[in-house]
Amino acid sequence: MKSETGFDPDLFNRFPTQGDRPEGEEEGLKRVWCAPKGWEYLTVVNNNYVGIYYLGTAFLFFLLAGVLGLLMRVQLAAPLMNVLPQATYNQVFTMHGTVMMFLFAVPMVEAAGVLLLPQMLAARDLPFPRLSAYAFWAYAVGGLAFFGSLFIGLAPDGGWFMYPPLTSKAYSPGINTDFWLLGIGFIEISAIAGAVEIIVGVLRTRAPGMSLDKMPIFAWAMLVFAVMIVIAFPSVILATLLLEIERAFNWPFFDATRGGDPVLWQHLFWFFGHPEVYIIFLPAAGMMSMIIPTVARAELVGYRLIVLAMIATGFISFGVWAHHMFATGLPPMTAGFFSAASMAVSLPAGIQVFSWIATFAVGKPRFNTPGLFAMGSVVIFVTGGLTGVMVALVPFDWQAHDTYFIVAHLHYVLIGGMVFPLFAAMYYWIPMVSRRPLSERWGRWVFGLMFGGMNIAFMPMHLSGLMGMPRRIYTYLPGSGWDTLNLISTLGAFMLAAGVLLFLIDMARNFRLAPEEGEAGNVFGAGTLEWLPTGLYSTRSIPVVKSREPLWDDPNISEDVERGRYFLPRTATGRRETIVTSPLLAEPQYVQIMPGPSVWPFAAALFTAGFFLALTVQAYLFALVSGVLGILAVLCWLADTDLPVPENDVDIGAGIRVPTYVTGPQSHGWWAMMILIVVMGMIFAMALFSLAFLWGNQPSFWTAPPPMLEALPIALGYLAVIAAAWGTRELHRIGKSWAILPALAGAIVAPALLWLDIGAWSAVTAPDAGGQGAAVFALFSLQGMVAAIAVLMALYLGWRQLRRVVTARRNNTLDLTCLFIAYTGAQGLVGTLFARSIGA
Amino acid sequence: MPAETDLKAVLGGWPPAVLDPAGPYSEPVTLLSWALLIGGAVVLAIVLAALGVALWGAPSLRKRLGGDKAIWIGGVAFPVVVLTVLLVWGLWLTGDLAAKAPRPGEMRVRVTGEMWWWRVSYLDKAGRPVMQDANELHVPIGETVLLELDSADVIHSFWVPRLAGKMDMIPGRRNLLRIQADQPGTYGGQCAEYCGGPHALMGFAVVAHTPESFKRWRAGRLAPRPAPPPSRGQELFLTSGCAACHTIAGTEARGLAGPDLTHVGSRRTLGAGILPNNRGTLAGWIADSQTLKPGNRMPNYKQFTAEELNALADYLAGLK
Amino acid sequence: MDDRRTGVLFALMATLLLAACEDIAVAPHEANEASITRGKAATQRLGCGACHAIPDIWPQGTTGPALTNFADRGLIAGKLPNRPGELAAYLLDPPATVPGTAMPKIPMTQQDAADIAAFLHHSDAR
Hints:
A: mainly alpha, Cytochrome C Oxidase, Chain A, globular, B: alpha+beta
């Protein structure tokens, strides 16, 4: 067998080790990973807690948005009802969509990842526990505040895709729309944070020996999911930024009368918005691919095909966004491309569906509740997929678009593709965290009501859509012929809700959290690692993985793991730690020292929420104070990280020694920074696209940019910044203690260069003068933001240097700061040249 | 009650507008729709059958399903064939139906979406507006009509399902849509892109005439008409603020914000498709439009006496 | 059948009849189901709701008086006795029947007027 890192794979044969481990090791693990008490529940960072918090909050949003859905169904049960007045209805449907998509679906699957991935990969935790905690708190506080806007009548009312100019200041003067932008801001933060966490977690913290082809399929799904978030979310981050800037400062990005273009929003939104559907679907499909083999008591058929299908879905989903825009008057050629891509994306879905069917066929399927939900999911999802193929055909979409046909289609896809798998997953994995499993008898009722209710509610909508009923109408006139169908839909919706209610009652009866031990365990007889006996420290020892279903293939594995006969059966340094392995073959590389509980992520999240909320209600002083406190909280949370331990290397079992501190491309921090840079780069790329798009569509508003030659000194300056960042790292490696100085200088110079650029452009145009000015100054705003972060990081590095915690020759904080400063220079360079070349 | 009446009562909207085409720009889509609906049902049945076999089938059948080969056939080969056929059909139809530049001699009308009604401008050969109307469009049967779709404020979408698919009205762009009705009659539609407030109450009607009837209608509309004799209603209209937003050709009323009322008496509906049009509803609309269509841009005019309201309603109803 | 039983039976029947009479008392004219149904449709078709709040009719205008429980009203437009015949005549041409009324003349047939009167007087319009 070839090795990826020089690790000798024969070493794996030393496990399981023989004999008993010394006394006290398990107690040591328990001490380091101890459970919180009282207020400490706010400071926990362990995935066992954060995952549950996260799931609970996301499910709460599912219930809240579900209630909104019921209210809508009551209003539409008959023509001209007056249950929800027009203005309220418009807020309610906007919130239903927004909360379901942004505050339930994405966080829910991300939460499932946070809770399940470390267990499946047999890692002690995800690599950045404090980041998880921060992401969760920011999401919970921000999401609840956002939802609260509904109770004071200030909820957004522009629909979940918030098309300008309806959502611009002229037509939505209230702060309702700002609340939307705020709410989305939080989920953007937590989604990106989660994506970083999941990518690094999946690629670097797998149990030794778990090469990519032995990885549980859910981990594959989450990996593709996270990569898609990294590519897709920047687009909506930029879109929301631009819309908020337009509303606050009158920069006309989307105002056609001043050189903006409302269609720009649609491109930015749907470039995110359609992949979003697969972002939701893939993890759920991953869950299905985990559950079905257990239910069918057979190995998953077509594992490799499914992995390929997931990756293909990820790719194709970025080529389908404009199928939401067929009625905007796209040229037929463009429409044709997106039509073809939209059909192609159904192929990978078909592969997965037939893999599941094949798995049922080879196995001995059981009709337990997870099984029923999985089978129901297949039926519903296939129905939604078929209507999806229909609307992918441009001429049919011209009729079906924005009607109840689409409402039916999207609910079939999302309920079949996400909600049913989620319920299957809850029934399936709850025994992993709860003392008692949920009731099988009740589960059948829950499934029956939900499956029947779902179909009764949404099947008639296909027909009402074809009868001409548009979406998003708060009422309809008698005699349109839609009455009966709508009444049936309403009854179905309540039936669906009754199923969910039954589920909640069963949760109250049976769900008893057992984070330390005493959980019901492997009641379904699954084969993957999350069913190993665990404590708060995850598994006692981290097994060597030799197959996809180790628990099926090695009957002794649970006992060996529990007795500490595998990797890291103790805390080697007396701190929280996990093994970092290589990305492809999962060979042990080093022991990561993990940060413990801290109040600072919680505080940082509170202040982040305070900052955005205060901005929304225009309490600027409060916003400023919150913002500064938020940054301080982040610095405090970082202060006790990246501190090397006395042991340079430790024994992780069977005499295998690995280092405790690495830098450069091997380190998990380096990976996270690279992902962050990709995110920043994508945001910036989208801003560049916006500028080019406006030029292409509103050329009559264009003025000649400042001459390119003038940009030469600025460009050279940015090159110098890059060189300084690179030089700092090199100088530090040869042991110069003053090495950080060039980086500091570079960080200071970058904003100055930006200032020069802004000066040159101010002579030509202003940000509120037209689309061009707005788009150019948006580039500068992004550059300013990045430059400000770079300055902050440089100051932080300087502070650490003064504290003498920057280790000589190799240091992660220094490396990552230099990487970011170099990125700042590169982004500035591209921006300054690009802005001057568009329309020159 | 007899069964057929029951069915009619249950499915008042039957046949669904999308499946009941009335012209050459909707007919091919209906054919496609039926193909898709039936094909979809068949595929769903196949998948369900496969799932059924997987769960309950005879071991020999299950064995056939349980391998990579089944995945390749069911998940790849079969869809590729079906989707390719559909794609070609769809692309061909897209190219066929997408409206391009006006044909010589073709009737052209500019329809502008406004919050929450439709401005209708009949254009001459050179594209200049010759006649204004609102919320309904008169066309001759058997002839194509090119619609130029604009927006005055936010995004709307023009949709008369029995005549054609929908097309968005986007500020800063002009989209084209071609329609044709083959039978005389009235074809309803509704704004299909959420445009805030009373988006649900933004209806539209296309009235298709026989060629002779259309000629008469058009001639009647275009003929110079004697200024209506001064009346109490007209005086009130001009002095009460109505003229600030509405135009009535031949009078001082030249407001542009609201619908042109030159022919308001002959329209089929009031309030963009939501009310019948008669003296009574006119009076009710003037006094209390905010109750009838909450959020619309016309304020309530509660200051009129009974006599004044009657005079106004009479005057407007007489504007044929 | 003994007398006591017969007495109870008669009493029962009388009660039932009386109960039935209550319905008739609301619309003592020849209003029948069909007329009421037609009347409701005409009310909707002519847009009476533009000025009047009428149960089950959209919209619920506020310009004219609400017509809930119309059968219990004393006078039509404050002038005419509230009987279906008078109501139908008023509906056909309000300004001619009650000079000075705000209600304009709305084009409708005699049948429409009679049907609407029947509808307004029927308990459905409560």
